[in-house]
Amino acid sequence: MAYADNQLDALRHEEVMRYLATHPEDAARVADIREQNRRLRLIFSPVLEPLPTHLMPAVVRHRIVARRKRRMTYLASLVLTLGLGSGLGWQARESMLRRAHVPMADAVEAYRLFASAEGRPPVDVTGQDGAIQHWLERTFVQAPALPNLERFGLISVGGRLMATDTGAAAMVLYRDTKGRQVIFYVRHPNSQRDVGHGSRRESDVTADYWSGQGYNFALVSPSEASFDTLREAISQRPPL
Questions:
Q1: Got the DSSP string for 101-114?
Q2: At 161, phi and psi to the nearest 5?
Q3: Across the beta sheet with 198-202, what order do the strands follow?
Q4: What local confidence, expressed as pLDDT, does residue 25 receive?
Q5: How many angstroms separate the most distant Cα atoms in the chain?
Q6: Where are the domains of the chain?
Q7: What is the pLDDT of residue 100?
Q8: Sign of the CA dihedral running 82, 79, 94, 68
Q9: H/E element holding 158?
Q10: pLDDT in tens, 37-93
Q11: How far apart (Å, rounded) are the C-alpha atoms in residues 173 and 175?
Q12: How far is residue 68's CA from residue 46's CA, in Å, rounded to a whole number?
């Protein structure tokens, strides 16, 4: 309600005040809305703080690119050690170059930056599926529908627009009652190709990824066994 959110001009505000003075039930509903708004501000005030420098889009993008360059430099030196003139050397080169282009590495990076951070991570939008879906549709053309993960005990709590070396991406944060967090990550394919459908584990994090509707997707979760049901469901049938 615009009145409860203090969004009315002075004249309209005065009119609503007069109406509420003679309609106590409506006045009580407005009071409830204002109290809910107050509580939400208290809950999410840490979320809405300015983004720390190390989480700024340009910094994140630079980190991803730098990491990729370091990986390629290391692999190139290792290939030279094996000897490029031999068949073994060329086979090793092909294998390691494939590993250098790890699918959805930026999604894992986003998870480590936001979902693994202590406290509430800074986000662009808060709320559950409806508000975040609307935000996603303003961000992407023909935006995909958010996966509903409630049957796995996860609800969406916020979204963040990311910057990668291939363009914009969106991260949606899900949380369960124990405070454990999962992210849904979406971006356009890079210049190479779609990521296909697969899964990979990186230390304590597992990324399940797939392509469709003109986008690449990833669901990144802790590698603990309690998320096996979620990962198995995605491996059998991606949510999009």
A1: S-TTHHHHHHIIII
A2: -85, 130
A3: 125-126, 155-164, 167-175, 181-187, 215-222, 205-212, 198-202
A4: 77
A5: 90
A6: 10-44, 103-236
A7: 46
A8: positive
A9: strand 155-164
A10: 555 454 444 444 455 555 555 555 556 666 656 555 544 554 444 454 444 444 444
A11: 7
A12: 32
Q: How far is CA 143 from the centre of its chain?
A: 14
CATH topology of domain 103-236: Phosphorylase Kinase; domain 1 (3.30.200)
Low-confidence ranges of the chain (pLDDT < 50): 40, 42-49, 74-75, 78-82, 84-100
The two structure tokens encoding residue 85: 């003139």
Q: Which of 106, 212, 230 is nearest to 160 (CA)?
A: 106
Which pLDDT does position 86 carry in this prediction?
Answer: 46
At a CB cut-off of 8 Å and minimum separation 6, what does 112 contact?
Answer: 205
Dist. CA 74–CA 86, nearest whole Å: 19
pTM score, whole prediction: 0.59
Tokens of 172: 């949606």
| C-alpha dist (Å) from residue 117 to 47, 55, 113, 224 | 12, 11, 6, 17
